[in-house]
């Protein structure tokens, strides 16, 4: 069990649910034209299964990454980070393959239940669309490193992370509640996507030499270490700016800028990356950036909750 928990890479899980948290609380704090109260918007069943589905997708991605890089020999003695399960021999490729199949089925089942709770017997078109989206996410998580046409080996991993753990996670879960897309929410969705890509980019910066030898042509391998740093600064700084723009356009009060506290560890992280001369020392920064992103999502939702409290007070006063 210990080895399977390690293979699931628990440190990546808080990052994966950041978009779910922001999208859900935003739906609760912004009733639509047809849904006027928080109780009509929010559903614990939708929230719970959205979290479960996203966590399943992240664990699946981690298992598939372990398997794909393991059988290809990408995870070898040259790799900098902690040893992977197949690389170290504690889990066989056959066992990991079975785990990938089981995790895929459980994630799909969770997605189906989520879709049912969100749309019920109505909105058949939406149900089919989200089912196809879920299947696509599962296949994309597997094909990142598995197979001869693994897109992670051609530099497209960043696109997968941005789309599914940024846009789909945030905007998708919000749509499950509101049944519409709020253009303003696109800003934090992009931010979370960019920060998630930043974590992957750090991983690729750390593994640049071993990836290059193994033929894994990540964006870092393609553009080089110096440009990878510039790319990283662009990802993080753009994400930080977009959240500020989101707050301004949302007419946040002064006390609703609490989320800026998350910019402290993000800024420290940027300074560390700027000063870094040894990619091996970037490994601790993966966890720091992932947790900083999670912290930003939590603080941002706390700022939204101040809006929710006003809605709930009015709701109860109106009921009396």
UniProtKB/TrEMBL annotation:
Protein's membrane topology: Multi-pass membrane protein
Catalyzed reaction equations: an all-trans-polyprenyl diphosphate + 1,4-dihydroxy-2-naphthoate + H(+) = a 2-demethylmenaquinol + CO2 + diphosphate
Matching InterPro entries: MenA, UbiA_prenyltransferase, UbiA_sf, UBIAD1
Any one Pfam family match given in the protein's UniProt record, by short name: UbiA
Main subcellular location: membrane
Entry's localization field: Cell membrane; Membrane
The enzyme's E.C. designation: 2.5.1.74
Annotated transmembrane regions: 12-29, 41-60, 99-119, 125-146, 158-178, 184-203, 230-250, 294-317
Reported function: Conversion of 1,4-dihydroxy-2-naphthoate (DHNA) to demethylmenaquinone (DMK).
Family to which the UniProt record says this protein belongs: Belongs to the MenA family. Type 1 subfamily.
Protein name from the UniProt record: 1,4-dihydroxy-2-naphthoate octaprenyltransferase
Source species: Flavobacterium chungbukense
Organism placement in taxonomy: Bacteria, Pseudomonadati, Bacteroidota, Flavobacteriia, Flavobacteriales
Gene: menA
């Amino acid at each position: 069990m210990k080895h399977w928990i390690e293979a699931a890479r628990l440190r990546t899980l808080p990052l994966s649910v950041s978009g779910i948290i922001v999208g859900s609380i935003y739906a609760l704090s912004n009733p639509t034209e047809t849904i006027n109260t928080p109780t009509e918007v929010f559903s614990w069943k939708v929230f719970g299964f959205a979290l479960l589905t996203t966590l399943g997708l992240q664990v699946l991605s981690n298992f598939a990454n372990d398997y794909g890089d393991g059988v290809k020999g990408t995870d070898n003695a040259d790799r900098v980070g902690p040893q992977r399960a197949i690389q170290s021999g504690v889990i066989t490729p056959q066992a990991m393959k079975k785990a990938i199949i089981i995790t895929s089925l459980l994630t799909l089942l969770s997605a189906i239940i989520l879709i049912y709770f969100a749309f019920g017997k109505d909105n058949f078109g939406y149900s089919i669309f989200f089912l196809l989206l879920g299947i696509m996410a599962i296949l994309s998580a597997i094909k990142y490193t598995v197979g001869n046409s693994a897109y992670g080996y051609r530099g497209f991993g960043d696109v997968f992370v941005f789309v599914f753990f940024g846009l789909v996670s945030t905007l998708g879960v919000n749509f499950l509640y509101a049944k519409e897309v709020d253009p303003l929410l696109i800003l934090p969705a992009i931010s979370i996507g960019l920060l998630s890509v930043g974590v992957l980019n750090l991983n690729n910066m750390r593994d640049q030499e071993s990836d290059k030898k193994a033929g894994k042509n990540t964006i870092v391998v393609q553009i080089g270490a110096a440009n990878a740093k510039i790319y990283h600064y662009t990802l993080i700084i753009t994400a930080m700016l977009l959240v500020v723009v989101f707050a301004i356009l949302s007419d946040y009060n002064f006390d609703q800028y609490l989320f800026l506290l998350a910019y402290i560890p993000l800024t420290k992280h940027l300074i560390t990356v700027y000063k870094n001369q040894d990619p091996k020392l970037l490994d601790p920064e993966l966890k720091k950036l992932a947790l900083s992103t999670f912290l930003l999502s939590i603080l941002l939702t706390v700022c939204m909750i101040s809006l929710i409290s006003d809605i709930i007070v009015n709701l109860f006063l109106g009921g009396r």
